[in-house]
Structure formats: structure tokens, C-alpha cells
Amino acid sequence: MIRAAMATLVGLMMLAPGVSSGQSYVVVVTGLAGDPQYADTLHRWATSFIEAARESSGVPESHILYLAEPKGRDARIRARSTKENVTRELRLLADRSEPDAEIMIVLLGHGSYRNDQSRFNLPGPDLTAEDFAELLALFPTQQMAFVNAASASGEFIPVLSGERRVIVTATKSGFERNQTLFGSFFTAAFAQGGADVDKNQHVSILEAFQYARSEVARAYEQQKRLLTEHAQLDDNGDGRGSTEPGPDAPDGALAQLVYLGDVTPVATATDPRLATLYKEKEGIERRLAVLRAEKDGMDAATYEQRLEELLLALAQTSSRIRDLERESREP
Amino acid sequence: MKIAWPLLLVGAVSHPLWAAQQDEAAAALRSGQYDQAIELFQAEVARRPAPAAVRGLVDALSEVGRYEEAESVAARHADALAPELWNALGEVQLARGKLREAEASFSKAMQDRASDSLTAKLNRAIIYHRRGAVRRANAEFDSFIDAYNAGTRLTSADLTAVATAVAYLGKVNWGLTQDALRAYDEAVAADADNLGARVRVGELFLDAYNSTDAVATFEEVLDINPRHPLALLGKARSRRFDGSDEALDLTKLSLEANPNLVPARTFLGALYLELENYGAAAREARRALDVDSNALEALSVLAASQFFSGEQVQFEETRRQVLALNPRYADLYNTLAELSARIRRYRDAVSFARQAVALDSTSWRGFALLGRNQLRLGAMTDGAKNLETAFAGDPHDVWTKNTLDLLDTLQHYPETTSPRFRFFIDGSESQLLAIYAHELAEEAYDRLSARYQYHPPIPIRVEVYSSHADFSVRTVGLVGLGALGVSFGPVVAMDSPSARDKGHFNWGSTLWHEIAHTFHLGMSDHRVPRWITEGLAVLEERRARPGWGDDVSPGFLLAYLQDRLVPLDDLNSGFTRPAYPQQVIFSYYQASLVCELIEQEHGVAAIRALLHGYAEGKTTVELFQSVLGTSPRAFGRVFDTYLKRRFAEPLAALMVEVRERSDGGVSRQAMALRAKADRNDFVAHLATGHSLFRERQYAAAVPYLERAKELFPEYAGPDSPYWYLAQIAKERGDVRRAADELSTLTAINERHYQAVMELADLRETLNDRVGTTAALANALYMYPLDMALHERLATLYGDREQWPDAVRERKAVLALRPVDQAEAAYQLALAHFNGGEIDDARRAVLRALEQAPNFEKAQELLLSIHAARRGTNP
After folding, report:
1. Using CB atoms and an 8 Å cut-off, which of residues 768-807 of chain B contact chain A?
2. Smallest CA–CA separation between B408 and chain A, in Å?
3. Angle, helix B156-170 to helix B177-190, in steps of 10 degrees
4. pLDDT digit string, tens, across residues A202-213
5. CA dihedral B80, B82, B85, B86 (to 10 degrees)
6. Please, are residues A63 and A52 in contact by the beta-carbon 8 Å criterion?
7. How many CB atoms lie under 10 A from the CB of residue B817?
8. Is residue B46 helix, strand or coil?
């Protein structure tokens, strides 16, 4: 499910994702919908995300918890999404998850913000940001990704921000109270194509965030509505979200290394020819990273020439790697 | 100038009985019962010629334009009764343009220490101002501030005089406008019956570009006196400011109350100029000049009518006359500039505005007109500079402020160019629209220049706004314009697809339409009448692509049957002064049919001859005679026959509706009965079909819809039979039938996005790739911002190995900034590669790999490109 790389950023920027081998868990909670139609919508988003986690990303079914407002509508729903049930399930997960596990919690539904308190609306009593802070504290060593796609969710960031945590909210404050579209596109980023921007076959939290943000803006623009939700992401623990996170921005460095699903680990070669090629490839990738970092100070023609040389070398090396890997897989 | 009778004077001379009679007369005057007021005052003066009664009679006679009588009454009594009557006499003389006599009367009132000598002083200063002795006038106006600050108790009339003097100063020093308003408020507070002060407040609001408050103020006066000529005129001016066609009727009402009201007569003339009815404009100006031969505004309107009629000698004579009366009268040129711009003669507008500011360097109106019209001609730097000058002098000018704000926005629009066009398109859409707009504009230029045998100067500047409000400001300086595009000749401005709702706009036909105007304006030296250039532009749309351009509708044919279309010889008024909201749209279509008929009967050479003839200063009547051998009226009759013949069947099918007038309020049963009673009743068949469709009684709906279609096959509006029959066919699984219906609909209707997309889907189901591609390509001109549309088209073109088209669509996908840029760039590279464009393919694939270096497909393509360049296998 989610994978967090622990190595230094520059070295990992171009590498295949995922160096951690921790177990992955997904918790999806759909809250109080308000009307049956929206309940259907939330269920659709939740299940498409769950299916993507299970089928495309290899998260075992037993590691997926789905709590929803009407329990009986789908066999995959573990329990009704009451405060009591959500609290209990997260406590149980804290007890059973490994210290190096990665946990992704996704909240879909409505939120509210009153009296300086942010809430995620559930059937019965709501869960506040402070409630979730207590629950997240039960995972002191695990890598956490917490996504609140509800309205008025922005104030969750200052409360939940912390080390080893990626916090995503659909809005930038508690005052953006209109029903949000973010959840639709965030879940679609994993369920459909189009979000894997770096073409490594996996969608990182950062990629999903950027995809959702972009599609939300496009949807509002096409409907000629003013954008009333500004999603933000925090992963540096400073309690302040970024609306435009990225590898080089204050937030985004960790999120780009956190994935949904069982990512392909970095190949370890027994074949010395492959080992050499992996090393060669890694070297080219590092040189590419350096070249891109120097782009602004170079004239365009020189940059393009050097880029082409490196990309060609990378393509040739990758091609040889693929041939050898194919060869080694053949009986 | 008209002021209320000073209470002081009334109180000083009235006897209780007389006071009662005078009160009745004054009340009648105040409420607009002029005949009664005159009768009562005359009786009173005959009985005992007291100053108050004489003054009342003079005012009443003046207010209905009986100036000669008013002057005679005032002159008869001025010496004998009271010095205040000298001021009354002067005011009547001023209204008649007898400036020297009026000046003497006002001076006499001041010498004799009349109680209203402050008003007399103001009136005298106004005469100085009228003569162009601005410095002397301003010195006099300035002294009113001292009078106000002296702390002595001022009457309502005195306060009105102070306010008016300060308002004059405010024309140059805008900061004083608020002071003027405050003084008027005090005048009204001192005497609520001082309607003259209230009217001036309205005028001041209008001078400050605040028509809302102006109208409210004039209406307050009209609540008291519904016939108040100046309040009616003020409201008319405000309505003109708002772009409402009420202005003409209100002015006529004002003139009904006072047929000799020079400003109203002059304003009516100006309105006729805007309607390009120069004869009527000259007539009104002359009627004004009959009353006041020195009226500068009337002379300006006369000069304009002469200029626009090509009467150069007479124009020069009138111009000399104006400048002899007031050598600094910049408003002569401002009026000419404003009217030139209103009839699209922007070069003339610039030239006149330039003369205005040369004459008076404080003519902020002149600078604004100069700047705005320079912008219309594409002189952006000079235009902006002059607007800055105008705004510094008159920061109330909402047009100038809006335009300057727009220029701030416009400077961020990236420029793209094609051989003969410079495009400035809102940044978020520039890259996408440029792909199509360049190609379309160049095609339009080629085809139109071949047709008209004329090449407009290049480059033509095209501005495309994603905000309709911005486009509106660019066009008229204010938001709220209903148009989609405008051509100023060398500059075209229009809405972008995102400025409008999907299905309400075809940006391609709009661009074509506006470029056509550029040809017409250029060929005719901007003198082509509005109806001809609009008619031709719609005709050009229809020639550009199947389905483009306005189509016939039941509404249009009903308007014809009900005699609600504008006769050909007055067709301009259908655009400039529509009698009802749809008349503008009907006039576009009507004009296009007239032009179509001209071309059919006389060939395109006749169209060209007409346009060139306008450039030579000829009138429509002259040109119809020389080119078509007929008069507009006679050609109107030929057109009538043509219309009857061309639309014989649908016209017959709408006759029942003309008789029955359902107006949408008739039940389904009644409509069904109508349909049953008459198989040729189009409206009844269509309405019954709609109702049955809504009730999902598809089998029952089909015969009605089919019959409606037979009766009026050219109708393809959103509620046309084609759309409903297609939906029913889809419901029944008859894909081919549904596709056929939508195919016909979209071949006529240029905006039905949903229909064209459904047609694409249906054709895809039928495995008709060519048809699918055609439908999607059609949709591009309706709404090009849908990424999926371009991806579908790119795939279809790729499947058919139409690589240049595939490349264009892949570029469009990239221009829409997809999240997955690497994939989009790779697809573009692939299309280039397949089309043999190896260098382009290389650049695109590098772009893909720069973002995703391990993108396997792109790596393989790069290797293939590399091999292709080296002539080896990858």
C-alpha cells in the first residue's frame, strides 16, 4: 500500500519507488452523506479506491477497512461509520500493525468548522481533528498518510501535522464549506490512468494530489463556478499546508515517495551484467537530476543537447536491462 | 435656465386672496398642468400685474416653449414692477439665443440689486462660458464659492446658483463635483418644490456617469410633474447612457411638453445621427436653431449631419459658425468624434478628437474619445496614454477607468501570430485556440479577399477574451454588451469559448463573421450601413461552413407574418433601435437574406460595387439605384416576394398560429385538437409532439414530430423535431435513424454541442469513422476546451493515418495542460514520428522524457527516432 522512501531526496528522485518493506493498510471512512444520492456517490468513490488498492496495488483484502454510513449496502463495509466504530477499528489496527507499517486513512464526506473546531461528520457524534490526533498518536513509528476529502477540512492540518505523516485536506481552511469534488478526483487518481506523471507505473500521494487539484480546477472552470475548494498537503511536519506542493517545494518531498500499493522494489541483481547496468542507469539518472537542476542557468540548445544525450543513454541502458530481465525470466 | 420662483418674493407681495390664486397657479405649474397655470397667471396679471404673477406667467410660458410670449410679458413689466423680472427676461432671451440682450438683462438685475441677483450673475457667467471666455466665466463661477462661504443666509435659488457655478468649475476640477452636489442638496432641502435644482442634480449624476442615481432623481421630479420637459430629457439622456432604446420616446415626450426646447431638439437630432438618419438629424438641428440660432450643440449636430452626408462645403460653413461663436468649443469635435465612433468611422473619430484636445487641453472627454478610438484602431500605446490623461482629469469617467483596467489585463495576454494576423488570447486558452484560430483566420482572409477582390491592411489584430465582461468593456467601455464579437476594422475582439456556456456559442463562425466585417469596413471606408455589413457577415458565415450562420426560425417567420420585421429601407433601426428584444436577431437574419437576394439577382460584383460606392460617399438610395437599378423600397417588395416563395410551406404552416396565438399557454389537448383539425399547423404538431415526448408516449409523439418536420424542415433549433425524433430513435435502439436526425440537425444548427457529441457517439457505434471524425471536428468550433474531444479526434485521425490532423489534436491536448504531460507529449511525438516529422518528434519525445525519464514507451520511441535519424534500425 503506501511506501515511504527513507533515503535522501536527490538520490531517490529518479529511482524506482519504494525501499521500505513494511506492511500496508488502508482505512476508508465515508461519513454522513445527507441524502441517498450523495451516499451513493461516496460509496462509488470509496469502492473504486478500495478496488484500486486491492487489485492494482496488491493490498491484501484483510488490510483494507471500509466503514460507511449504511453498513448493509456492501459486503466490503466492515462497520457503520460511527465515531465509536471508527475509533475502535483504528485502535485495533494500531494494535496489530507492524512498527514499520504504512497506514493510509481516507475520509470522504462532509465536514464542518465551528468554534475553532474541525469535524468530520459521521452518523451520530462527529470525530474532531483532535480526536483523530489522539488516534494517530497510536501509530508512533508507522508511516501515515491521512486524507480528509471533506468540506471545511483545512484546519485538520495544524492539528495532525507531524513527523512521518502526509496530511491532505480538500480545503485550505474551515471556511470552505461547500461540498467538495476533491475526493472524486483523488480516488480516481488511483483507480484510473492519467495521474502517474513520472511513468513509474505507480501513483504517489503527491501525484494523486496534483491530479485531483488540477481536475477539480478544470471541473469548476468548465461549470463556470468560482473555485470554492483549495486542497492542501503537508508532509514536513510544520503544520502549514501547501496548495502547490512539489519535490522542491516546502511540502511534497515525502509525499512523492509515498505510494498506494505494493510497489516494485528496486531490483537486486544476481546477474553481474544486470548489476552493472542498474548501477549505470542510476548514474545516468543522477546526472539527469543534476542537469535539470542546472537548466535555468544554461542556454536552451546546450541543455537540449545534453538532455538528449543522457535520455538516449538512459533509454539504451533501460532497453538492455529489459532484455536481460526478460532473458532471466525465461525458463 | 429655469429656477423656482423665490419664496421671498412671493411672500413679500402677495395678498391672502391673491396668494390663494397664485398658489393654485403655481401648483398647476409645478404639477405640469401648463395650460391651467398659464390661464390662472394671465388672469392674475390682467387683474393686478404683481411681480410674482408676472414671473409665474413667464416661467409657465417658457416651460412649454412659448418663448416669444414669455419675453414679451417679461419685457413689458420688467422696468415697472421689480428688478427680479430682468433676470426672468434674461433667461427667456438666453433660451432664444439672444446672448447680448440676455447679458444686458442680467446686468440690469444685478445693478438694481434684485433679490435673485446671484442667479443673474450665474446666468451672465454662463453666457461668458458659451462664448468661450472660459477664464472670465470661471472667475465669476469662482466668486460663488465666496458667496457660499460668506455665511449669509441663502435662498434655495441662491444655493442652486452656487451649485451650478461649482458644477461648471467641476468640469475642469473634478474634485468640486461633490461640493456642487452638496449645494444642490441644500437648495432642495431649503425648498422641496425647487424642481430645477433636482433636475440639475440628475444632470450632475449623469455627468459623473452615474445613470442609476440620475434616473432616480429625474423620476422624483416626474412623480411631481410628469411633463417636466427637462426631467424627461434628463431621463432620456440617462437611458441612452444605459443603451436603452427608450431614449427616443422620452425625448419626444419632452418635446411634446416643450416643442422649442433646444437641448431636447438637439438630442433628438443626435439620436437620429446614431440611427444614420442624417436628414432627420439635420431637420431637428435646424428646428433647434430656429429657436436659438447660436445653440452650439445644435450647430454641432447639424455639422455632424452635414459631414456624414458628405456635404463638405456646408459642414465647413457650420464649423466656422461654431468657432466664431466660441473659438474654444471643443465639444463640436467631441460630438463629431462620438458620433463617428457610433457609426464605426473610427479614423474620423480619432481625427476629430485630436482637434478637440488641440482646441482645449482640458477637454477630458476629447482625450477619452481620442484614446478609446485609437485603441479601436490598434494604436495601443497612444490610446493608453490619452486615456491616462483623460482619467487624470476626470476620474468619474467609468468608460475610461474600465478600459484602463482592461488594458492592465490585456498586457498579460500572450501574442501569437499567423502570416496576416496578430492574436492576443487570454493566457489560459492562448495555446489551444491559436492552433485553430490561426488556420481559420488565414482561411477566412484568403477566401474573403478572393470574393471581395480586396485585401485589408495587415496585420489584423484579434483579441479573444475569456471574460465576457472584458470583451464588453473593450467594445463599449462598459459591461453588459450582448454581442459575441466586434470588428473595428483593423482590430477584431470577441468572446472566447469559455466566456459562454457550452451550446450557446460558435467561436469559429463568430471569428469568421468579424473578419468579414473587417473587409466590409475597409472596402467602404467604414461607411457601409450596419444592416448591410451584418447581413453580409452572416451570409459569409453560411458560405464558410455548412450550418454556420443564423437560421430561419418560427419566431422569424411569425414576425414576418405579423408585420413585425423592419422594412428594408429602415433596416438599420432593427439593430440600433429594436422594437422588441428578438428584433435584433431577426434583423441579422433578414439582412442576410436581403444580401443573399442581391447576390442571387445581381451577382457578387454588385455587392462589391455597393461597398465601394459607400466609400465614395454615396447613399444607399443612390447605390441601390445605380447598382441594382431600383430603390430600397422597391427592392423591399422584391424581397417580400422572395421571402414568401422561399418559405412558402413553413409560412403556410404558421398561419394558424398567427390566428390562434397560443403563446405557449395552451393545453396539450387544445394543441392536439388544433393539430387534428389542421394538418398544416406547425406549432400545434410540434407542441403536441413535445408534450407526448415529455410523457414518454414516444409512439404517439412520432407522427406529430414527423409532420412538424415535414412542414418546416429548415427549423433545427434546440426544440426542433430532429432532436426529439433522435432521442426517440435512440430510446428504441434505432441508432442509424437517430444519427440521421442529428446529422440533419447539426448540418443546420451551428451551436448544438450536445447534438453533435451524441451524433459522434452514434456514428462510432455504426462504425462510421469518417462521420464520427466530422462530427467531432464540428464540435471543436463550439467548445474546444474538452480534452477528451481532442484525444478522440487524435485517435481517429491516427487510425486513418491523417498525421497532420492527429498532430494538431495532440498539440491541443498538450495545450489543455493535462496532468499527465509526459503521456501527452509522447503521443504528440508519436504522431509526428508516424507522419515523418522526425525533428518535431524528437523535440516532443524529449519533452516527455524530461518529465518522466523512465517512461518506457517514450524511451523506445526516442531510440526509434535516433535510429531513423542515423538511418539504422533501433
Report:
1. 785-786
2. 22
3. 170
4. 899 999 999 999
5. 80
6. no
7. 15
8. helix
Count how many pairs of residues, chain A against chain B, have C-beta atoms within 8 Å. 76
**What residues of B are in contact with residue A292 (Cβ under 8 Å)?**
850
Q: How many of the other CB atoms lie within 10 Å of CB of B427?
A: 11
> The dihedral of CA B128, B131, B136, B141: what is its sign?
positive
> Chain A within 8 Å of B821 (Cβ-Cβ)?
yes
CA angle B828, B834, B835 (to 5 degrees): 90
Residue A2's closest CA among A20, A19, A24? A24
Terminal Cα distance for chain A, rounded: 31
**pTM of the shown model:** 0.81
* Distance between B852 CA and the closest CA of chain A, angstroms: 4
Query: Could you read off the pLDDT of B17-42 as tens digits, one per residue?
Result: 556 777 888 899 999 999 999 999 99
**Cβ neighbours for B502, distance < 8 A, ≥ 6 positions apart:** B753, B782, B783
CA A105 to mean position of chain CA atoms: 10
Give me the residue label for grid cell 430532429: B722
A-chain residues near B823 (CB < 8 A): 194, 199
**Cell matching residue B464:** 479573444
Cα separations in angstroms, B423 against B273, B432, B439? 34, 12, 12
Q: State the complex-level ipTM.
A: 0.75
**Could B819 and A314 be called an inter-chain contact, meaning their C-beta atoms sit closer than 8 Å?**
no
- Cα A270 to Cα A35: distance, rounded to the nearest angstrom: 58
The minimum CA-CA distance between A181 and chain B, rounded to whole Å, is 17
Q: Is the pLDDT of residue A5 over 90?
A: no
For A193, which residue in chain B has the nearest alpha carbon? B820
> Of the candidates A210, A307, A318, which has its C-beta nearest B850's C-beta?
A307
Q: What pairs with residue A234 in β-bridges?
A: A167
Instruction: Give the rounded distance of the alpha carbon of B845 from its chain centre.
Output: 50
Alpha-carbon span B519 to B251, nearest angstrom: 36
